[in-house]
Design a protein that fits this description.
Elements: H1 11-27, E1 32-33, E2 48-52, H2 62-69, E3 75-80, E4 87-92, H3 95-105, E5 109-110, E6 116-117, E7 119-122, E8 124-125, E9 139-140, H4 143-146, E10 151-154, H5 160-171, E11 176-177, E12 182-186, E13 188-191, E14 196-202, H6 211-217, H7 227-230, E15 234-241, E16 246-249, E17 260-265, E18 269-275, H8 281-286, E19 300-306, E20 311-314, H9 316-320, E21 323-326, E22 331-334, E23 337-340, E24 344-351, H10 364-377, E25 412-414, E26 429-437, H11 459-473, E27 477-483, H12 486-496, E28 500-505, E29 514-519, E30 524-533, H13 540-560, H14 570-574, E31 579-587, E32 593-601, H15 609-634, E33 639-645, H16 653-660, E34 680-681, E35 697-701, E36 707-713, E37 739-745
Parallel strand pairs: 9-19, 26-27, 32-33
Antiparallel strand pairs: 1-8, 2-4, 2-7, 3-4, 5-6, 10-20, 11-12, 12-15, 13-14, 15-24, 16-21, 17-20, 17-24, 18-19, 18-21, 22-23, 25-36, 26-37, 27-29, 28-29, 30-31, 31-32, 33-35, 34-35, 36-37
Bound molecules: 2-oxoglutaric acid (AKG) and fe (ii) ion (FE2).
Length: about 750
């Protein structure tokens, strides 16, 4: 009788099995895709997650990602979600593991994945009928036939011999593998995760083999552009195998100047162009660089045949108003001919990077330069005594009141027909947002508020009065600052008023208040959120040292309320523990619309105006990135609201910076100071900024054709009896008053 063979595989068998399994895994990759923009977080009983903002293109291998997710259950596979290299599908063995991974990891930085903030949704299974249909757009053979201003195509820009030399040159260089194509970067690396260039890392001069092309470009006919656009310093070489295309996109506005040149080599392709109707392109052009997936009914499409050796120039309208893309086809129809794509097409895309000196995300060296310049140029300005909500400047007497608290709130007053013109749409979405610094109890000491009635400073009376104000305001969103006792008091009480909340506490140990956004789930569904910590502006290695120093200075600070350490040290100066929070909400009725709401509290001290400015810049850079992510992931144009206590008055550097993206170029301060997103203050564009106490708090919104403020919360006149003297008082439980606005969103 034969022996029963052992079932335990040998080591070599194990290795082979593993290899076979990975092969099988690759071959049978399930067709899971990202959920459609209208399906919210996807199918919540799915075992598959769609994870954005991580992948090989940002240096995170599928194995590393799988290891992090396997902490929540058995991971059956990690697959690219698309060709971007920054989105993956995680396939769990069961839906419970998927759900708990989503709940634990989504919307917060993941320390084991380079601190990237993951955006996770349940994935959906793609049905076979949804596979790509080859839509036909008539293909033009010449650039001028397309009739797109700023687009030029020059055939035979290089000779066949030069083409071979260029291909040979890049083939000696290492390729970076993306999901479906390979790339090389010269000058600066283009980072697919952020859709930006890493200006910290100059890779060097452009290689000598492109010099003849650069020379020839300078002789390009029709060139009448700003010479800055033509000092090309970035080259991306793309290699597409047959059938592989490129998704619709507009090259990143904030990363690249106007003129973009693309040389086709080795094989032809069809490049398609699409844009929204003329009335909307201005709006999208001001946003950062999103992949646009518009409603096809309002979109014009054109197609151009790019023969090998031709050079394409996209500039002006062609560069900013039209998305360009290469359909993923193996066969293209050009006029009446059927053209098979060659096994390989290589393109050289040449661009000029934009250099932002004051971008706080740039190199620390530049930050310090900015820092010193600002210090030299900007003298601290005292807050005028009329702005009484700045605690440090409160010196005037008020009458004492001892009666029980009787909170008062203003009414929403219509501003339709005010500066913003359009007529109200009957089927628009309307919602209200209130911003309110509720004054953390930790700051409420009678020594700091000597003129307020002592009874109204007590936590119990004040907290209940605040709740009563919030209840009376009946708004859809609250952006609250200086929220302490979030878990023990506000969250629960707001829940019983029908609100859900998200919260970020200040960093550091000393001050325990933070920023909260409360929203009505009946109005808006929370999709994803991100934390903003302004201590990110610090040079990380040095934080340790400053922390050590902290203990010694603690006592001194407590007495003065100020930081007695060396404020010339940027590490000390920038470490203010201030925070913000931003979130994307989906409003479902009467139609789907995504709204991004950000809430923050910037540093208070007028003497540290440069620090506040650095915080404001960091805030807008994060908001712009978040907006790009949301537009891209949810295929939408979100509206953008930013509220908070900015501790700045109109005309301050912070205020001027925040609205600089909206002003006409002639009005902007200096070119490098322009904010990456257009923002304007809702009070300013309607009734004017309030004359009174709240001139530190603002609600900004990003103007577009489809959002307009329809009412604002009235503020009392300075002489109104309920505000005469000092806040807090019996009618106002904080030293700030709530500000608010109602917005109307019309269908895009
Ligand atoms: O391959 C091409 O010709 C276009 C490449 C492109 O659009 C890009 O790199 O942004
Ligand atoms: Fe492009």
């Amino acid at each position: 009788m034969g022996r029963v063979l052992s079932k335990t595989p040998s080591r070599s068998e194990e290795v082979r099995n593993h290899k076979e399994q990975s092969l099988v895994r690759k071959m049978v990759q399930p067709r899971f895709v990202r959920p459609s923009p209208s399906s919210g977080t996807g199918e919540s009983n799915s075992s598959n997650l769609y994870v954005a903002n991580c992948g090989p293109a940002v240096g995170l291998s599928h194995d590393a990602i799988g290891a992090v997710f396997s902490a929540f259950g058995e991971v059956k596979g990690v697959y690219p979600a698309d060709e971007s290299g920054v989105r993956v599908i995680i396939s769990f063995a069961d839906p419970f593991s998927a759900k708990s991974a989503l709940e634990s990891l989504s919307g917060r930085p993941c320390p084991d994945l380079d601190g990237r903030t993951l955006h996770i949704r349940h994935s959906v299974l793609q049905l076979p009928s949804q596979t790509l249909v080859n839509e036909c757009v008539p293909v033009s053979l010449s650039g001028s036939d397309l009739n797109i201003p700023g687009l030029f195509l020059l055939p035979d820009f290089v000779t066949a011999e030069e083409e071979q030399q260029l291909l040979a040159a890049v083939d000696t260089q290492p390729w970076i593998g993306l999901a479906k194509r390979r790339v090389q970067h010269y000058g600066y690396e283009f980072c697919y995760g952020t859709r930006n260039v890493d200006t910290k890392n100059r890779l060097g001069e452009l290689p000598p083999f492109v010099s003849p092309i650069l020379q020839r470009i300078s002789l390009f006919p029709n060139l009448d552009y700003d010479p800055a656009s033509l000092k090309l310093d970035q080259l991306t070489v793309n290699e597409y195998p047959s059938g592989v295309g490129l998704s619709p996109h507009i090259d990143t506005h904030s990363a690249f100047e106007d003129c973009i040149f693309s040389l086709s080599l080795a094989g032809p392709c069809i490049m398609e162009f699409r844009r929204y109707s003329a009335s909307t392109w201005k709006v999208t052009s001001t946003s950062t660089d999103e992949e646009e997936k518009p409603d096809t009914s309002t979109c014009i499409k054109k197609a151009l045949y790019l023969p090998p050796r031709s050079m394409l120039l996209l500039s002006g309208e062609a560069r900013y108003a039209w998305n360009h893309y290469i359909p993923h086809h193996k066969i293209d129809k050009v006029k009446d001919k059927v053209i098979r794509r060659s096994p390989r097409r290589v393109s050289f895309t040449l661009r000029k990077t934009v250099y932002f000196i004051l971008n706080p995300l740039e190199s620390k060296a530049k930050q310090k330069l900015m820092f010193n310049n600002t210090l030299l140029l900007h003298l601290p300005r005292p807050i005028p005594p009329s702005f009484t909500s700045c605690r440090a400047s409160r010196k005037i007497l008020s009458k004492r009141m001892t009666t029980a608290m009787d909170p008062k709130v203003g009414k929403f007053e219509s501003v339709e027909g005010a500066d913003l013109n359009s007529i109200s749409k009957p089927d628009g979405i309307r919602f209200r947002l209130v911003s309110y610094n509720i004054l953390a109890q930790v700051y409420v000491k009678s020594s700091l508020f000597p003129h307020s009635p002592p009874a109204c400073l007590k936590w119990k009376a004040r907290s209940h009065a605040i709740l009563s104000v919030l209840k009376k305001l009946q708004t859809d969103f609250f952006c609250l600052q200086e929220v302490d006792e979030y878990d023990s008091f506000y969250r629960k009480n707001m829940e019983s008023l029908g609100y859900s909340g998200i919260y970020i506490q200040r960093t550091g140990q000393r001050k325990r208040d933070g920023c909260a956004i409360f929203f009505k789930p009946s109005c808006a569904e929370l999709v994803t959120k991100e934390r903003i910590e302004y201590n990110d502006l610090l040079d990380e290695q040095k934080i340790e040292t400053s922390n050590e120093a902290k203990g010694d200075e603690k006592e001194a600070k407590e007495h003065s309320g100020k930081d007695s350490r060396d404020l010339n040290d940027p590490q000390v100066r920038l470490k203010r523990d201030c925070v913000g929070i931003m979130a994307a909400f989906r409003i479902n009725k009467p139609f789907h619309h995504m709204v991004i709401v950000a809430n923050t509290h910037l540093y208070w001290d007028p003497e540290l105006a440069d620090v506040k400015l650095a915080q404001a810049k960091y805030l807008l850079s994060r908001l712009a990135q978040f907006k790009t992510l949301i537009s891209d992931e949810f295929e939408c144009t979100p509206s953008l609201l930013l509220a908070g206590d900015f501790n700045s008055i109109p005309g301050d550097m912070v205020y001027s910076y925040l609205v600089s993206g909206y002003k006409k170029p002639a009005e902007t301060i200096e070119e490098e100071e322009v904010a990456p997103i257009p923002m304007c203050s809702v009070y300013e564009v309607t009734r004017g900024e309030p004359k009174f106490t709240n001139t530190l708090d603002y609600i900004f919104f990003s103007p577009s054709d489809f959002i307009k403020p329809v009412s604002i919360l009235q503020l009392p006149e300075p002489e109104s009896p309920d505000v005469v003297g000092f806040l807090p008082n019996d009618h106002h439980p904080s030293d700030h008053l709530p500000i608010g606005a109602e917005f109307e969103i019309s269908r895009e």
